[in-house]
Amino acid sequence: MLTKLAMTGFKHRWRDYLVLFSGLIMSSAIFYMFEALATNQSFLKQNTSISMVGFIFQFGSVLLTIITLVYIGYANSFLLSMRKRDYGLFMLVGARKSKIGQLIWLETLLVGVAATIIGILVGTLLTAGVSHLLVNSLGLTIRHFSAWYTPAAMTTLLGYVGLFIIAGLFNLLALTKTPALKLLHSNDQPNRPQLKPARQLLEIVIGLIAIGIGYWSMAHLATLQLMGIGVALVTIVLGTYLLFNAIFVWLMVALKRLPFAQRGLNGFTLSQLSFRIRNYTKMLSIVAMLFALSLGAITVGMGFHQQIPLMANANNAYDMGLVNATTAERQQIAAMKPKTNATYHFKATKKAVYYQAAEFNRAPFTTIEVQDKHQLTYKAVQNKAAKLQQSTSNYQLMQLKDGVMITATPVFLSKTAYDKVNQPEQRLTVFATNSVITHRAALKKLAKSHFHTANPERFSGRYAMYQMVNSMYSGLEFMGMFLGIAFLAMLASCLMFKILSGADADQHRYQMLDKVGTTKRQLKGAINKEIAVLFILPGIVGIVHVLFGLQMFKLIMITSPYTGIWLPFVIFAGLYLLYYLITITIYRRIVLQ
């Protein structure tokens, strides 16, 4: 009978359970996505030469576990808050506390295990989809990666089931030790913020010092090595929580004392934020960290992606050089619509390669001179025969041959002197497209046709350098973009779960405002402001974390990690705004129906 009553309560609040269930599914799915990389040692070793990457992922696992603990703790408190009133009523009509304790423990475990299993399956699908999208769209070369990885699935399952067993025991104790009347009215007791100036000032000071130490350790990672990552992990997480806990409470109380709070529904909005203030500080701290992790990972991933063409373009002015290209190969080149296409005749001996000077005077050969190795800035220099003969960059002409003659010296002769060289004449065709990345498929086909291989060690030019650099950085680029997307999904899950889980409780407050004559426009404005605060505050903190955190990547990036930073920031801001619009749309439908 008691089980039937419990199921009736479940059906009555199916919408709340859907929010809870979907949030837990996304949480376990993202955890699996991270572990699919972190536990796959073959993937980590084969796709990056950075020895510390395994330890970095271990620290990442610790941070994600902390986030998961808080997330599950909040989800568990939400589940408990939904059932307190129901089980309080059961106690009043004579149900035994031990039986109720068993029910809530079983309910917690069933919800958790079911959400985790489905989450692992969803995580596998997301892993397959995201990896396929990244590899195909960015032209990455990934080895030893699989969407389904059994150790990652077992780690996720055991970790989550263990946490839900503990959560179920906590719920059992919480319900059986609480009087029935208190359970009935547990959701009606606000968490009123109180200003404690001395304590809050201390939290602000400690928080700023902790974050400062974290930023300093990231900037001095070359000296501190792994210890620097550990120090940053602890201090930044601690400092972020302390600052939110101190400043957010003070901000709400201070704003309510200003004339601003008396205009329109601003006072109501501030009261809404104040009502569950303590829960918000924990969730906002998590969201700020996830924001920083996601934006940072995407920024670094895009940084490596932008570095690849820079390094390729700084190597040579031409995509490829073909000796004695066939008619079909020349047609393939023409199909790419190259911006530069020239053919130079030559005669070769073991010690020298003889060219006609007149051909270089008519079509000067372009060389690349690097001006700043750290920023990979360079200039293209047009060289006629006499200038190229003296240039220290004339090796770039020799690189475009098939590699056999790369140590030979180029010599530029008049037509008469050239004709006297007793060697068979050959042709060197060089060309440059507007983008190696855009034409990589056509260039690969051409390389296989002419050199009978796509191995960049057999030929030279921008495409060969692109191939080599891409194989070096693809793993890091993939990790950054993959984890950035995963953390972005978890960020959305956390925020939406936090906001939507309180929607039913907020509904009657908006209904009261509607009854006293408040317009729909005013109600929508109040909702927009309330949710905007929850998005903007962690966003600001997350951006600051990213700007300082990029210091870590100076060790492994040739260019500055801040190069082209505006692009990932703009993309991320657009996605973040989209999440905000989706959240307020769903929230409005619930509270204003």
Automatic annotation (TrEMBL):
Chain ranges of the ABC3 transporter permease C-terminal domain: 60-178
Highest rank taxon of the organism: Bacteria
Any Gene Ontology CC annotation: plasma membrane
Keyword Transmembrane helix: yes
TM annotation in the entry: 17-34, 54-82, 103-128, 148-175, 201-218, 224-253, 283-304, 478-500, 531-553, 565-587
Membrane topology: Multi-pass membrane protein
One Pfam family named in its UniProt record: FtsX
UniProt keyword list: Cell membrane, Membrane, Transmembrane, Transmembrane helix, Transport
Localization (cell): Cell membrane
Matches recorded under InterPro entries: ABC-4_Integral_Memb_Prot, ABC3_permease_C, ABC_permease_BceB-typ
GO BP of this protein: transmembrane transport
Family note: Belongs to the ABC-4 integral membrane protein family.
Protein name: ABC transporter permease
Originating species: Lactiplantibacillus argentoratensis
